[in-house]
Design a protein that fits this description.
heterodimer, A: 556 residues, seven-stranded mixed sheet, six-stranded mixed sheet, 35% helix, B: 200 residues, nine-stranded mixed sheet, two-stranded antiparallel sheet, 4 helices, 11 strands, globular
């Protein structure tokens, strides 16, 4: 009898949440969630949104001297300014649709920095592709995506790392970091909301693109790519450029109390995060949201990952002033709801209440059991082939110099040696560009200093702890050798399925290695991102943490 | 001597306006931004149309910007007009400069430091464009302002920058505004800015 009941129930939650999660929701709510509510949980409880396999271990990372590490992007202080930076993956989308996958990867990470009122001043990337014939299609698409999007929004791509290994042939890694510059006193957070404020959604009209992207990123890639395609967000760099300039103008006039970008699980995660972090609740009316596709369903509005949208929390009296600036930039907006005192997450459709959940329950899935076994699981790993990845023809497609801060650009080298003979100069340029395309140096003229930037990664072969630890120390030394004092690091941890050993074992070793190296170097981990489930039908990737490390050199 | 009055036109999608302003201010010039929808009424000594992706390069680069009130009210003959990169593309689209800028020969974005011949000198400036391949029929040699030492993008006669017939409008693909500061090691952009000032 009990079994029959459970089977009946299973049809309600299967494909949305796990049985354990379903029981937890029931217990905490004191009643069964409705189907719409379950759909919300399916996104917020996904690995992508909840970090359920990694959040306890991430607490071990050193944070001393980091600022805002619990926000959209963390950073370091330089005088009156802050450098806010973060790295993120967009691996799964790039496997299915390389161009849009890579472009929206930039779009997403730029919004994280922008949401804090920092002007994005640089992009870096770490790319891994297979060593076989598939390479060309995926590689060309990804590089073109980065080139078209990054160049259009006027943010230079300054540091690039490319590696080839056959373990990435079905599951490329596309890790992108953004670096933003903000005035310390003007930084916006997503945790500053209080009751009685308006929720303003700014930017693109919500469509069905990117539907369920958070859940998509939290599963292995199947061969049924046609089905996956709907999950890819569509890139619009022109819209993003307008959004950047409009946001910075609106923020500079102090019209916004709190801000959050719409990334994974779109409106749902942005509004629930603001409410939870700020310690208040929200009430959203789906009828008020500007929609670009009339056939869209209620839960799709909540979960859609339509690009180029931001959520502002504002005082009602500021609506007119914000509207004027949005008009200038030809951007749409809608007032989609308001903040409330009770810590509840309420979604309505006119007068009809669709969901009413405690914010805390919505954003915190129950603990999962972690398997730290060191022995390999069932997946057979094919022998992998690794190829050297130096590709000047890639770097030349990225605008390095827009912004007039960058010291090195492709086919250029130590440009300071302007007095050298022509021939010698161009030789030196070629050599340097070839040697270290993943290093660059940015002039922060506001604080009379240079920012040294290294982007690197570790494709773990055997000993995760040793390899990660040594790589961080080596790159730190490279910065020191160039006269930069290392100040902080961001990471993007690309791992296989956390439910199958030895992924969690290697993950824990990696975290411990980062902790040890950073503590020795006295630098904080300012921000980061975890990407699990980097697997495909025939195998899995070698676990690969990527990093962007920054250092500072004062100008005399 | 009074400060040079400079206007910089800004479109939706422009992304070099801050760099251009910073470079002008390096020379002590008085800079104002001109919004795409505003008619140009004030007297400027010099008007820049900066680089970027005006209107997202929709249809083709410069195709929509040429219809904007700012471009339609350009005081041709009164102010010296200088288009850089996307600005050059807009001026060609608006037929204020002859020729057209089409996709680079390799159909890819090219970002590098290019070596150029300019006013009898060899200089190096950053280039960053997808449509910088200059196509023209019977251009007067006097109208050629700068050429690539090694043809980077397939341009006719390796042309990187041109004048109009009256020498009152200039267009160039390289970015002199990104090559001003000793801190960044490349200062040849100063030569272009100083040259432009003397042309006023």
């Amino acid at each position: 009898m009990a079994e029959r009941c459970l089977n009946l129930l299973k049809t309600r939650f299967e494909g949305l949440v796990s049985e354990n999660e379903y029981k937890h929701i029931n217990k905490e709510l004191g009643h069964e969630p409705n189907h719409f509510e379950l759909q919300l949980f399916s996104a917020t409880y996904s690995e992508h949104c909840s970090y359920k396999h990694s959040k306890e271990l991430l607490k071990l990372l050193p944070r001393e001297n980091a600022i805002f590490y619990e926000e959209n992007a963390g950073g370091i202080e330089i005088g009156e300014h802050a450098i806010l930076f973060k790295m993120e993956s967009h691996n799964h989308p790039c496997a299915v649709e390389p161009f849009n996958g890579a472009a929206t990867g930039i779009g997403g990470i730029i919004r994280d920095v922008l949401a804090m009122n920092a002007r994005p001043i640089a992009l870096c990337n770490s790319l891994k592709f297979g060593a076989d014939s598939k390479l060309n299609k995926i590689l060309n698409g990804v590089v073109e995506g980065i080139s078209v999007y990054g160049n259009s929004i006027g943010v230079p791509t300054v540091s690039t790392e490319v590696l080839f290994d056959s373990c990435f042939s079905e599951n490329p890694l596309v890790n992108i970091s953004a670096i933003g510059l903000a005035k310390k006193s003007d930084i916006l957070t997503s945790s500053n909301a209080k009751k009685g404020l308006k929720l303003m959604l700014v930017g693109s009209a919500t469509m069905r693109d990117g539907m369920g992207g958070a859940a998509f990123a939290s599963k292995e890639l199947s061969d049924e790519k046609a089905e996956d395609k709907i999950s890819i967000q569509i890139a619009n760099p022109f819209m993003k450029k307008k959004l950047i300039e409009a946001c910075l103008e609106i923020f500079s006039e102090k019209l916004v109390v709190s801000c959050q970008d719409c990334g994974a699980a779109g409106i749902l995660s942005s509004t629930s995060e603001v409410a939870y972090k700020s310690g208040c609740g929200v009430e959203i009316d789906l009828n008020k949201i500007h929609i670009g596709d009339k056939s869209i369903k209620d839960f799709e509005i909540m979960l859609s990952e339509t690009q180029e949208r931001m959520l502002f929390v504002i005082e009602e009296s500021k609506i007119d002033s914000i509207e004027q600036i949005l008009k200038k930039f030809e951007l749409e907006y809608s007032i989609i709801g308001n903040t409330i005192k009770d810590k509840n997450y309420i979604v309505k459709n006119g007068d009809n209440i669709l969901a009413n959940l405690p914010c805390e329950l919505l954003v915190n899935p129950p603990e999962v059991k972690l398997d730290f076994a060191q022995n390999a699981g069932g997946i057979v790993i094919p022998p992998y082939v690794s190829v050297d990845g130096n590709c000047p023809e890639i770097y030349e497609q990225y605008d390095h110099t827009v912004g007039s801060r960058t010291q090195f650009s492709p086919a250029s080298s130590s440009l300071r040696d302007v007095n050298l003979q022509d021939a010698q100069r161009s030789n030196e340029r070629r050599n340097l560009a070839k040697a270290e395309p993943n290093f660059n140096s940015l002039w922060i003229y506001e604080e009379n200093c240079f920012l040294g930037i290294y982007t690197f990664s570790v494709v773990i072969q055997e000993n995760s702890f040793k390899e990660v630890y040594e790589a961080i120390l080596t790159q730190s030394k490279s910065l020191t050798d160039r006269g930069f004092q290392p100040k902080g690091i961001t990471n993007c941890l690309n791992f296989a399925n956390p439910e199958i050993p030895p992924t969690m074992y290697e993950f824990r070793e990696t975290i411990l290695a980062i902790k040890k190296a950073c503590e020795e170097l006295k630098i904080p981990v300012c921000s980061g991102n975890v990407s699990f489930y980097n697997e495909y039908s025939l195998g899995k990737i070698k676990n690969t943490p990527s990093f962007t490390m920054i250092g500072v050199k004062a100008l005399k | 001597m009074s400060r040079l009055k400079v206007g910089i036109i800004v479109f939706l999608g422009t992304n070099c306006e801050l760099d251009t302003k910073r470079a002008c201010e390096f020379f002590g010039w008085d800079v104002q931004f001109i919004w795409q929808n505003d008619k140009i009424e004030k007297p400027y000594d010099l008007i820049f149309i900066p680089g970027g992706f005006s209107y997202g390069d929709h249809i083709s680069s410069g195709r929509i910007a040429k219809l904007s009130p700012a471009v339609k009210s350009l005081p041709v003959g009164k102010s010296l007009i200088v288009g850089i990169c996307n600005g050059f593309q807009i001026l060609c689209e608006a037929k204020l400069l002859s020729g057209a800028l089409i996709d680079n020969q390799n159909i890819k974005f090219i970002s590098k430091v290019a070596d150029l011949d300019f006013e009898g000198e060899k200089i190096s400036l950053p280039i960053a464009h997808h449509q910088g391949n200059y196509f023209c029929e019977n251009i007067d040699e006097k109208q050629i302002l700068m050429t690539y030492q090694k043809n980077e993008n397939g341009s006719d006669m390796s042309i990187a920058g041109v004048y109009d017939r009256q020498n009152r409008i200039i267009g160039m693909m390289p970015h002199p505004e990104r090559a001003i500061y000793e801190e960044l090691g490349l200062t040849d952009g100063r030569k272009v800015f100083e040259f432009v000032k003397n042309e006023i």
